[in-house]
Every structure is written in C-alpha cells, then in structure tokens.
Amino acid sequence: MALLLFASCGRQYDAEQTVKAFVEANMENGGRDISDRDFADLGSTKHISDSLIQLMRHRGAPLFRQGITYPDAPDGELYYLRMRYVHAGDTLQNTFYLNQELTEVVAYK
C-alpha cells in the first residue's frame, strides 16, 4: 500500500514539474508575475479527441503567448492537472493535458 501511495505522489510531482516548466517557457514574463500556485490532484481521461486538442491549442488562454510548439498528441489516455494561481489580484485557473509519461504538455485551456 505504501508503495502505491509513493508512486502516485511521484507522478503528481512529475506532472507539476512539467507544468511549471511549460508555464515558464510559454507564459508572458515566464510566469514571474503570478503567485500562490496551487495544483489539484492529477487525473486521467480518454475523452479528449484530436479535434478538441487542436481547438485548445488554437484558442490558448490569457497570459500565454501565441504560437506555442506542441509535441504530437498521443493516442489513448491523457493526464490532466489543474493549476490555480493569482495574477494582478485575480484568481485564475488553467488545465494542462499531459502525455502518458508526464513529460510534455500536449494542450491546455
């Protein structure tokens, strides 16, 4: 039981590190003007289609730069991680979709 708990905590940490790196690389000002980052629990889904991934990539989100380069979206299950943060006094949230290895963000909203 302890091994399962340790493994899930490790996956959560890996996902958070991947999202933090993505934010630093793609958010305006490298994310330096946000504070109070808080992550929800890592989840998984098989209900994200290629067309939905393309739509999320096209729309982007406020505070993120345009023209982000993404890896190929994998088939099957994706993982997602929600991040809440404060920017200019407002609490905002984005959801990041990661590949199965938790090494790359393939889309976000």
Topology:
Blueprint: H1 2-26, E1 34-39, E2 43-45, H2 50-59, E3 78-87, E4 90-98, E5 105-108
Antiparallel strand pairs: 1-3, 2-3, 3-4, 4-5
Describe the main β-sheet briefly.
5 strands, antiparallel
Question: Strand content of the residues, in percent?
Answer: 25-35%
Mean pLDDT across the residues is 91
Please provide the count of β strands. Answer: 5
Number of helices: 2
How does the overall form come out from the CA principal axes?
A: globular
Distance between the termini: 34 Å
From N to C, what is the helix and strand string? HEEHEEE
Uncertain stretches of 5 or more adjacent residues: 1-6
Please, what is the oligomeric state? single chain
Structural class: alpha+beta
Percent range of helical residues? 25-40%
Brief write-up:
With 109 residues, this protein is an alpha+beta fold. The protein is built from two helices and five strands, in the order αββαβββ. Strands 1, 2, 3, 4 and 5 form a five-stranded antiparallel β-sheet that branches.
